[in-house]
Amino acid sequence: xxxxxxxxxxxxxxxxxxxxxxxxxxxxxxxxxxxxxxxxxxxxxxxxxxxxxxxxxxxxxxxxxxxxxxxxxxxxxxxxxxxxxxxxxxxxxxxxxxxxxxxxxxxxxxxxxxxxxxxxxxxxxxxxxxxxxxxxxxxxxxxxxxxxxxxxxxxxxxxxxxxxxxxxxxxxxxxxxxxxxxxxxxxxxxxxxxxxxxxxxxxxxxxxxxxxxxxxxxxxxxxxxxxxxxxxxxxxxxxxxxxxxxxxxxxxxxxxxxxxxxxxxxxxxxxxxxxxxxxxxxxxxxxxxxxxxxxxxxxxxxxxxxxxxxxxxxxxxxxxxxxxxxxxxxxxxxxxxxxxxxxxxxxxxxxxxxxxxxxxxxxxxxxxxxxxxxxxxxxxxxxxxxxxxxxxxxxxxxxxxxxxxxxxxxxxxxxxxxxxxxxxxxxxxxxxxxxxxxxxxxxxxxxxxxxxxxxxxxxxxxxxxxxxxxxxxxxxxxxxxxxxxxxxxxxxxxxxxxxxxxxxxxxxxxxxxxxxxxxxxxxxxxxxxxxxxxxxxxxxxxxxxxxxxxxxxxxxxxxxxxxxxxxxxx
Amino acid sequence: xxxxxxxxxxxxxxxxxxxxxxxxxxxxxxxxxxxxxxxxxxxxxxxxxxxxxxxxxxxxxxxxxxxxxxxxxxxxxxxxxxxxxxxxxxxxxxxxxxxxxxxxxxxxxxxxxxxxxxxxxxxxxxxxxxxxxxxxxxxxxxxxxxxxxxxxxxxxxxxxxxxxxxxxxxxxxxxxxxxxxxxxxxxxxxxxxxxxxxxxxxxxxxxxxxxxxxxxxxxxxxxxxxxxxxxxxxxxxxxxxxxxxxxxxxxxxxxxxxxxxxxxxxxxxxxxxxxxxxxxxxxxxxxxxxxxxxxxxxxxxxxxxxxxxxxxxxxxxxxxxxxxxxxxxxxxxxxxxxxxxxxxxxxxxxxxxxxxxxxxxxxx
Amino acid sequence: xxxxxxxxxxxxxxxxxxxxxxxxxxxxxxxxxxxxxxxxxxxxxxxxxxxxxxxxxxxxxxxxxxxxxxxxxxxxxxxxxxxxxxxxxxxxxxxxxxxxxxxxxxxxxxxxxxxxxxxxxxxxxxxxxxxxxxxxxxxxxxxxxxxxxxxxxxxxxxxxxxxxxxxxxxxxxxxxxxxxxxxxxxxxxxxxxxxxxxxxxxxxxxxx
Lengths: 570, 364, 208
Description:
The complex is a heterotrimer.
Chain A (H helix, E strand, L loop, with lengths): L1 E4 L2 E3 L3 H4 L9 H6 L4 H29 L10 H36 L8 H24 L19 H29 L12 H33 L12 H18 L2 H15 L6 H14 L18 H26 L8 H24 L1 H7 L3 H31 L5 H28 L12 H34 L31 E2 L12 E2 L23
Chain B lengths: L15 H21 L10 E2 L1 H32 L19 H30 L6 E8 L2 E5 L7 E2 L1 E5 L4 E7 L4 E5 L4 E5 L5 E7 L3 E6 L12 E7 L1 H17 L17 H12 L37 H10 L1 E3 L2 E3 L9 H16 L1
Parallel strand pairs in B: 2-6, 5-11
Antiparallel strand pairs in B: 1-9, 2-3, 3-4, 6-9, 7-8, 10-11, 12-13
Helix pairs in contact in B: 1-2, 2-3, 5-7, 6-7
Chain C lengths: L14 H42 L7 E2 L2 E2 L5 H26 L3 H28 L9 H32 L9 H26 L1
Antiparallel strand pairs in C: 1-2
Helix pairs in contact in C: 1-4, 1-5, 2-3, 2-5, 3-4, 4-5
């Protein structure tokens, strides 16, 4: 142990952190089978973006179908496959890999001042399972795609088309990949933080990944078990879920939701982390209530294991069991509320620099609050008797998944894009893109709340032809085209930025976390020398709390400040 | 290096109190509107428990509206009031404040109290639903791909896709499915339960407003899921009695027979096959001991020769035909409800086998 | 400062710097391995939950099939087979202890004893599978849960045997030395984990 600054000691693993592997030179080892977490992160991003576009296209087919009460374009069978694949792809092949695999891999090691994750080879394997699983999933269209929704409740899924088997395999594989990533990230964050970076000095995005990782490797395994049982029941006729042979369809629901409720938090906690990074940077303020935000992530993660049966209030479980599940579900609102109020307080008194990431972060605040409040309606058991299985549920989870996860993903993408590519995007177009998304999104999903309450069930290709239903469905569909326009504009903005974007420099936003202290894009080894961390990263009034940062060779510009020049700028 | 500009620490920001006043007024208006709307979700109430569940909707709606107003209006206000002033240097920073323990205490405490109130309120309504009356009329609803069947006591055959409910009659509906999971939802009664094969879910309703309503399937059940709907007709008790008599007449005319059990050929029954069936279908509720050895229903081991219970629970003589009639049509009595053969998915030969088994038990 | 401080590959360290790298890498791997075992526990727990759920959803267990209650499993034989597996846990422990004391000959002996006992357990399990009169894997929920759970455990034992064999080969190639033997630690942990799972399964299927 050596003391290198007041309060900072280097542990034995400082040597490990400083250990630099030589950079690979061959194209394949550098870009295809790379073990560099940054490259893997970008690979996740590209793959996830492709799946996002496919799944988004499926969503537009769904909305176009619902333009007319009798179903405008596709047959009911095709429609069933389309929404099932839309849900499966969005949950497992877009949101989870993008939030953990893509941003977790690119940003998290940089933020803790590490050269890579703990197990780079495991990371490589985990990534490659993702596109393979995706291809398996979408190839099920060739032999009859699964049609029973992303939840695939038996017994209907036992009768489902042959593609359901591929669905089981694909989701199982992505589950294994997610498990690997979870273990990898937990060890990385626990063991590989830069010297001096105590738990209360970690950036909040790292906290979020730290809270998410256990969910990935604990809950996902339960999903794997359920999927394997569904697969062997379908293929080998082994009775688990078939009620006519002594099995129980409700058993699947327990096993599935034991995973899938924590999965909801796998899909949102990293988003919380991104928002907590973006707001301080653009308000030029320390995040309000750092510890409360960090610990509430952990609290949400812990609670998420004991609420799964709130998806099953009408399924027929012992009535008294409904109460604890209802109450614990409501309790989750408390840590979530703490976060929302803390973010609002971060906005207060800021010198807010209204760039696209900040707009998205604020938009997230509004849509996610809305989605959280409708969650209350669903948690209250008697109200859920009315809402279960209707469009109200669809509206609710799109508010938390699109208004929550995807909006935070967009926020994070705009925020870290200059770091990832070294180029700025077109700010005007970025803001237009935000408004298209925000307006289109709310227009699409707000009407679904009352459509559900008035009697529109989920997963139907046709609906009641009364004028209220037709009007609001058309309203939603047309708004969804606006949202799609926003997504297409995003593609243009990113391509435009790669071709014409001006050089970003190491720190275009004047942020204070470690990743902004090095050149953009970061060099292979991230840090020429592992820095030491003296304090939490968000004190804009103070000098940067890092020592030992040297300008990396090949950096486009020097870092704006370093501790050797104790003039506070950011 | 540019001079650092720090936003001066104003008290709360320009216009904070007017905005707060606006939030208070708007929230009060929202709460008033939500609480006084005759139909909070815009859907008529056709009977209990719609009013109870709507009162929960009102409560949730009022709380949600207030929270939503607070979050959204303050967020928008902060967003505008605390934007970087025009002409301020890029290095300008905000008020350097890390936390405010008092504030954090309150925004933890107030949501906690709200959660407790909501949980108590929801639990109270939940308990009311659990304890609500229902047993005046007992109906069975059976889902299949793609329709609903409803079975009434004393009607030998089920009615397809048309549920008639007498007004102001506490009704229990036992719900199950023949094939895959379906949903049973009458939006105007705010009540729903999944129809799960192998499982019987129970709801209790008391319809009040005569009319014709939809019964909607809410769990994906196959290709025609979107068209799986039935009609719920709530009618006055006189109209219901007429309809019921007409149904009975039609069924008798169609040869269905109103005397349940007539079609069961009891002499074909095999006791060993009946034993298997008993293990699968009956033994969750019935023991093979004497009447008093109850699990849910009475023990059936001595059903034909029990000196303490010479008659069946429905008052009929303990003959194989009478037992078969109960197994076939089900029965609701003071100790609970026995589902019908259709609900239990028993064919006529199954019934014969079961009766043969029960006969063999009584001989032991 | 040069970019490449050290070459890739640091399984056996020489010198103080490499020794620190070895120790830290070992700690990280150990943590990762324990977390992996933890997720494996969840896998088994899920099926155990399924078994308990299915068992409690019908009135009598073993289930009644075609009018006859299925027989219980052969507890006496399984108890004998369990002793074989637990014995292998003991020999594995001794193998590692002998390795730590540099006693290669004893290590080889106990390592092989572990592998043989592991294979013996698998043989016993196959015998049990052939003689269990519970309607096969796809016959009823008893067969489904029994064969799935014990089959998955058997697969773990089989992979464990392969793992131990590879470790033994590695010791012959001097991958490990007396102070650097992470692989052997992991193998031992894994083997004990498989034992512990069996204790639970034995209770659930044979004693309950």
